[in-house]
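User: Can you help me understand a structure? I only have the sequence.
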Amino acid sequence: MDPAGRGPGPQYTPPSISRFIPMIFPLTRAHLTALVAYISYVVLLFIDAGLAPLPLLAFIAICLAAPFLPRLGFYLPAVRHGNRSEKSVALTFAGGPDPGFTPRLLDLLDRVGVTATFFVTGERAAQYPDLVREIIARGHTVGNHSYSHTPFLMLKGMAAIRREIAATQDLLKGLGTVPLAFRPPLGITGPRLWRCLLERGMFCVVSGRRPDGGSRRIAGMAGRLLKRTAPGDIILLKGALSRREDAELFLKEISQFVDGVRTGGFRIVPLAGLIGRETMLRAGNGTGANLAELFYNDLAPDYDHEQFATAVAMSKRKEYELFAARLSKLADGAGRVLEIGAGTGIFTIPIASRSREVVAVDISGNMLGLLEKKAAGEGLANIRTIRSDVEAGLPEGPFSLACAFAVLEYMADLPELLRRIAERLEPGGAIYFITSRRSFLRFFIQLGNAMRQGMWLKARGRGQVERMLRHAGFDRIEIDTHLFKVFNGGGMLLEVFARRACAPVAAAEARQGALLVVPSCESGPALRRVAEGAGEIGLSVLVADDIDERCGARTTEPPVEILTEKFGRKRGAAILAGAALAREKGYGAIITMDADGRYDPDDCRLLLDAARNSWPAIVIGERPSGTGMGARQGDISAFLGRLACGRVLPDSRSGFCLYPVDFLTSRRFFAGGRGFDIESLVRGAWAGLPLIAVPVSGGDLPAAAADGTLRGKLRDNLSLAVLYALLLLRALLPWPHRRIVARGAGDDPLLLFSEPRRFFRHLCREHASAAELAAAAWVGIFIGALPIIPFGLVTIAYVNHKLHLNKLAGMAASNVCVFPFIPFLCVEVGYFFRFGRFWLEFNRQTMLHELHYRLWEWLLGSLVVGPLVGLGGAFLTYLLVRSLRRGAQEACS
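Assistant: Let's start by predicting it. Here is the structure, written out as tokens:
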């Protein structure tokens, strides 16, 4: 059995402190009070400036008084009492051990049958280690009372507080115990204490009942204390006496107090039982305490009630509703199931009733104890519980399903955990979890949790989770948002389902994992040739339904599958429909090929082999040079594509491509016709997918298939112009693209700020072809002509960055528009647009009083002057760069 006594084998992982340190976020009443004081100050500034400092002065006064009033919980949530509804109290002693008093006190406690808590100082524990061992041996608990008992320790720096706490913890660990409860010297707290305690998994205990205020007050202590004792009180007494204090009298008063308490119907219970949380660990149970473990160990008895009958019930009920709707699909007939963060078995019991075995992992032993009782009550013997920190170690697989509910928020490195889960899933195994979604409302819940636990639980976005899953090796990802959605958007919960990828493009298996989609067809023989060639390499073929009308698809040998909807020659729509069907059938990739005689189906092998080594990727069958669209049109298309995504698009009108199914089904496309090929490459680049060009034997589109009429050409060119405008507009928007492949660590030039020489060399050399420099000059001149002088350079840098142009060239070209010539020309043109004549009256009225009119005319004129002057600047830049580079090449040769 493991150390916790649950489950066979050595799976138990000791509690870990360090992984939670980055998540520590001790938000307290002091922070909220500071915010209220500042807001009040700002408001009063507009009402009565003389009263404005009062909130700030009040806040300072509270900060000065709060260390001496620990019961306020101003700087940290200190434990002050236990459950007030039960007539119980706890007895604690602070300041020992004392060789002249502690042994006699222990004998008294044994006689009266009381278990107490001793808050010892490190100095005294180091002097009298045998007394500490004796305290533990007699069944009492030990707490940390600092090392030197410096009265105003909490007013010192954080390093000093850490040293005092750590020195005592290390000493007591050597004596066989790891305290979780800390009592500050004299009960004085401070703003730095909570973080120091959280770093060690500890909490603060204070008391309002301290009647032993010196040797003169020992007499009659029991009577005074009994008059004030209330249910749930933590009674704090001296743990060490001075030479002047009478130990016999003190022991007599303690005995009288114990008798009086019991006569009054009170029970004296251990401190842990009174406050409902552990106060000490045995040193053999690990090196320290895990914040989440301690929190859920303490919460375990009331966990189910809190989840379904308190303020968090709405979220938990929604989770259970989503889980219940998926249960039959997830668990029916499942083999081994791994549940992370099983808790008290809210979800475990239903899963176990439908699957062969459930391995329930949780960090809290108390939670698992309740789960085991529930399983025994239900008669379920197929649940194996493991107490473990899953980020430190997972049980061995394979599993057919892994699931987690409201627990991944505690994971410091979720991508790594998902990767290890994927390794333990069998091929095609599924993962299902519900976690917090990053949102405005979720932010306030995170704040509340930071005040309660001192930890910032992580909420994640939809795209972030999708990228994590893909990098971990999952595909067929389904992510939905729930709870407080607005207009079908937003939400506070993410429901996630995914399957472990089966390497859809690996070697020979790739041919069974890819589907050949034929979005358009020009003749029956061409379609039959595609079907025969695909059959030879083991590819299934899918064609659009309206192809059957022209090419007799239903009579093709070998048989092909037919989509049931008509697309009217919109190949983009047909490809997307084919991708959706491929996903339903479990394919990982599709290959698009028109049945027009241009391509040899056997070349599909080349695309599959190219994708095998760099999956996921988009692979383009690149035709021999000189085929395809005209050179000029191809250059323009490639240049505009490069502006939109920053990459050279290989043969963007090929139509013979291999796409990941998840990429096509997880994005929305503007184009449904032939522009789809270009848009898919641009969006693939945005998603971080490699664009791999593979030479294939192909030619130009047959004349019969191309629309050679003037009207057809105009329609195609217009649709492409609109498409590029939309793509460039999207590229300029400030929010990031959803990526499938993560950005590499060296891809961001801003990381070169630490190396200025490399940074500026990069700025000078990036996007430095003649066409790109000319385009950068046009952008710089156009934006420089606008009346946004304070923000002109920033705007130029932003636009050139988004359009993948040279930033320095754009900012340099904007100097053409410096005051006064270009701005004056813009004002004159704008004035002419407004009044049909030029502005010739220059006086105080027209230049100052009507300045807002001149700015409006400047804007109108810049929309004409800027592009025209920009064209001239771009043309000159292009010629100059070409000439200089040609001269440099000739000089080198």
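Now, to help you interpret it: The first helix runs from residue 29 to 47. The chain has a mean pLDDT of 81. Let me know which part you'd like to focus on.
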